[in-house]
Structures are given as structure tokens and as C-alpha cells.
Predict the 3D structure of the following.
Amino acid sequence: MKNDPSTRIFDLLQFGEYGDVNPSVCDSATFTFMQAKTMLETFQGEAEGCFLYSRHWNPSNKYLADALAVMEGTESAWVTASGMAAITCAILQICSSGDHIVSSQTIYGGSFAFLFNYVKKFNIGVTFVDITNHEEVRNAIGPNTKMIYTETMTNPLLQISDIPALAAIAHERDIKLVVDNTFTPMIVAPYQHGADVVVYSMTKFINGKNDCVAGAICASKDFIDSLSNVNDGTAMLLGPALDPLRSSGILKNLHTLHIRMKQHSKNADYLARKFREYNIKINYPGLEDHRGHETLKRMMNPEFGFGGLITIDMGTAERAARLMEKMEHAGVGYLAVSLGYFKTLFSNSGKSTSSEVPEEIQRDMGLSDGLVRFSVGLDHDIETTWIKIKQCIDQM
Ligand SMILES: *Cc1c(COP(=O)(O)O)cnc(C)c1O
């Protein structure tokens, strides 16, 4: 029997009050009570199963949150209107004025901008480190540090965070490890490896349709309850509630995630090996000589492969732009930001999703001007996709 949390989701039976196999969409902002006392108890968090107001909890959002908690093996989860809402709420729930964060230097551009530019307002300090250098991580932790922040597979350099090792470092100092697992749902379940809080942009692989933005936070019941506390919960008070209509759509898509992840990984692995044979500088954690290959292997559920993201280096931003335009016209996929879509998406990270990172820091972290990130799609015939890509390269 397969028994990792990611596959336990398939045992989950959730149906609506009429036996509707897709639980009904609850499109109500508020909920009525037959007795005033129950409302009071709900406000105090003491009435199990009662809903109050949809910024707090909504039944449709709870179905999705419960499914995500099963997938991650966490006690609880919370869904948000975007990945950034999940990230910022999780961080601000843990950190107060005067606190300090140790963060991976290579992370999603929006997360970087939040930590680099925004948390200053709250007098929260951040030290950016090479997350694969554990000595550097350890040395960056001070008396007021509250968390280590990283991504399982970092954007866009595809470095692999050693989650068990980072959890050990964090817990030694009694601080939290917060992990963005957007690139590797099902492949890695960070909570099972010691992360305290797992955040997602569901906009990407989890939903996989590019028809909405959404996010999630998976953690202990205590942490999720604190986020949704009516008096001081960050998610409750900042209010990035997900539309229940959207969460019901995402829940349906979540149930095909396992098939999609396998296909994304299979196609990415195929292209990575072809790029390498063709002497293009390629980065894919599935390649045996990738620096994080062994680390990822130790954490991953091998059924789902090494993920759908690969990067190549075209040397300069101009060459990257030219190749991407050719690939767009050849029908390889779309020149677009984002990832985890059924079509292949490609973009030049330095000039797009990592443009928030100042150029000198981009250079410092090894982000080349010519880096093209591919989110490889679900192509049925990846061999033909490669032929198209190869023709584009040959025309350069
Ligand atoms: C896209 C992304 C985010 C932000 O999510 P949104 O849903 O766009 O707010 C955060 N982290 C990673 C790794 C991402 O790829």
C-alpha cells in the first residue's frame, strides 16, 4: 500500500450535503444561527463545525484546505487569494517588529521583494544566504531570528534545500522553518521532513490551469488557528480570502495533480537530456550531476519525478529573447511568466519574474542574463516539441 501523505489524498472522500460528488459551492458571505449562544461560541472558537463569515472560514474553502492538509500530512491548512498572501501572512504571523529572518537568496521575485523592501516597514531584519551552505545559514541566526525561509526547489536557479538539515538547524535554535513548496507538490512533502510551515502558490501546479491566482498555508492546527484568530490572526485581519467558487475549482484540479506531476517531470527530463546532448547549458535537478540531485532524491517521492522546471543559459538577454520569440512562433509554448500550466511556458527570469532582484545580487547568486526558465507542459508528443526547439536553436 502506498502510504506517503501525497498519495493519501486519494483515499479522501468529500461529498456535499446532497451526495454531490463535488461538494457544493457555498457562495455565502455570512451564515445564520438558530441560537444566539452558538454565534457567541463560534466567535470564541468553541463551536465545532459552525461557520461565521467567509473571510474567516467558508465550507468550500475548508474542503480544499482539508484536502491540502491530507496531501501535506499536516493537521490543518488555510487557503488564500494568492501565493503571496500565503507567504506574507505566514511570515507576519511569526515575525513582529524587531525580529529577524534568515532567507535563501534565490527565491521567487515577489517573496524576495517582500523580504528585501517591504518588511523594513515593520523593522524586521533579513539576512539572505546561500541556502545550500549550512554553515552560512547557521552563522546568520542571531538572538532575534524567528525563522529560516526557503523554497524546496528555488526559483529560478533550481537549487535544492536540504529540508531535514535546515529543520535541524532551525529547531536547535528554537526557530521555525518555513518552506515554499510551489515547484514540487507531491514530489516533496516538506512537513514530513521537519518544516514547520509549508506555503504554496496554488496558481501554479496545484491548480494547473492558469485561470486564477490562489495560495495555501499548511501547518499545525495551532498555527492555522492563530492565523484565523478573530482578534489577532494575520490572515483573518489582513483578509486575503479565497473566493469559494475558485476553491471548488482548485479542489477538482487537485485530484489530477499526481498524473500531471508525473507527466511534467517526464517531459522535463526528456528535454533536459536533449538540451544537454545538444551542448546547451542546462540546469535540471533530475540530471545526475546537478548539485542538488542527491538531496532531492533523499526527500522525494520518486513516483513523481524531479519536477517540471528546467533552465537553459543562452548567454545574453538578447539571445534569450530571440530564442523565446522563435519558440513562441514555432508553437513550442508561450512566452509568459508563471508555471505549472498544461502548455509549456518560458521566460527570461532576470528580466521578468526575478527582475525585483537587483542586478548585482542577480550576478552574485549566479543568475545569468541569458537564463531561460521553462515550465515544461503536459505535451503528449515531447519528441516533436524537442524537434521544434532544436530548429529554433539552429536558426539563432
Ligand atoms: C508564483 C509564485 C509565488 C507567488 O504566488 P502568486 O499566486 O502569484 O501570488 C510564490 N512562490 C513561488 C515559488 C512562485 O512560483
User: Anything to note?
Assistant: Residues 117 and 356 are 10 Å apart (CA to CA).
